[in-house]
Amino acid sequence: MWQAEHVAARLRAAHPDLEVEVLAMSTRGDEILDTPLALVGGKGLFTHELERAMLEGRADLAVHSLKDMPATLPEGMTLAAVLERADPHDAFVSNQYESLESLPDGARVGTSSLRRQSQLKHYRPHLTFEPLRGNVNTRLARLDAGELDAIILAAAGLMRLGYDRRVAQLIPAETCLPAIGQGVLGVECLSGANEVIELLQVLEHRETRVCIEAERSVNRRLGGDCHAPIAAFAQLDGHNLHIRARVASPDGSRMLVVNEVGPAYDPVASGEQVAGMLLAQGAADLLAAWVPT
Fold it and tell me: Do residues 94 and 143 lie in contact, with contact meaning Cβ atoms separated by under 8 Å?
């Protein structure tokens, strides 16, 4: 709701005569909290109901956390605008410990992200990882109840909700590379809705678009979905695009890493090149090990 209200406020400010209504909806991804996403349909659970509302004419656009959007959109849908990226890091949150490094072996860490689990297991193999679903308040409540020693959340989500002080540590990308699109809000609409697309251009942030097109290209080339702990993070530097990407084994014992610089004018090709380098290292076999059970 914060995201939807934020986009609505931006649109009202840019188009004073425009009437903007927020249609609150609950998706299956929000409702199914006791089962890993990999077992019940993946990231599409956060988008299907919203896309249906647009197809049925009940809504003109949908606002998403880009990291929750599938790499390939359904036919007839387009990512009409991406907003400027907020902090992309993962946040370490704990009431007892100041950092990931200070956790004792065996400490209970809450996260349902396979990407986070695999990278953090690689870094701290003796931690215990437990599933953690629900909204931010639900997750913080489990930590505060003493069920977990720490939890890992997206820093951007905490900061947007005013929970900056709960962040004990911003985990460096060298330790845990962010999710594809992390920290970015994306606005989806029907690909033929030209008037809506035109209104949304005031939200578009070119530099962020270049970066997320490269990141999402990595995911598409690898055939990634929510089963796969694929991390990719791109940063624009003038005419160059620095892309870091990782694929890890379920237990974190094996980590494939690519750091590459490509031309910013063709981010999709740059992302595909990085994915190809991961495949050359054996990424396909590693991703096959992530079939959910």
Answer: yes
Given the structure tokens 């996260």, which residue do they identify? 111
Q: Are residues 218 and 109 in the same domain?
A: no
Q: Indicate the SS3 state at residue 240.
A: strand
> In this structure, are residues 90 and 178 in contact, taking their beta carbons and an 8 Å threshold?
yes
Q: Which residue segment(s) compose the domain that 94 sits in?
A: 90-171
**Could you state, in chain order, the average pLDDT of each consecutive group of 10 residues for the chain (293 residues)?**
95 97 72 47 65 93 92 94 98 97 98 93 95 92 97 96 97 96 97 97 98 96 76 96 94 94 96 97 88 51
Separation CA 166–CA 74 (nearest Å) = 37
- Residue 170 is encoded by which pair of tokens? 């911003």
Ordered strands of the 90-93 beta sheet = 128-130, 108-110, 150-154, 90-93, 169-171
- Whole-number Å distance between alpha carbons of 263 and 236: 10
Cα–Cα distance, 85 to 155 (Å, whole number): 12
Strand 169-171 and strand 90-93: the pairing is antiparallel
Find the farthest-apart pair of alpha carbons in the chain and give their distance in angstroms, rounded.
58
Could you tell me the CA-to-CA distances from 193 to 77, 109, 216, 231 in Å, in that order? 9, 44, 23, 32
Global pTM reads 0.89
* Residue 155 and residue 95 in one domain: yes
Give me 153's structure tokens: 């959340």
Report yes or no on 177 lying in a domain: no
Q: How many residues does the chain have?
A: 293
Where residue 257 sits, what CATH number does that domain have?
Answer: 3.30.160.40
The burial class, CB within 10 Å (0-12 / 13-18 / 19+), for 75 is exposed
Catalytic sites, residue numbers: 68
Instruction: Give the span between the Cα atoms of 110 and 106, in whole angstroms.
Output: 12
End-to-end Cα distance, the chain: 33
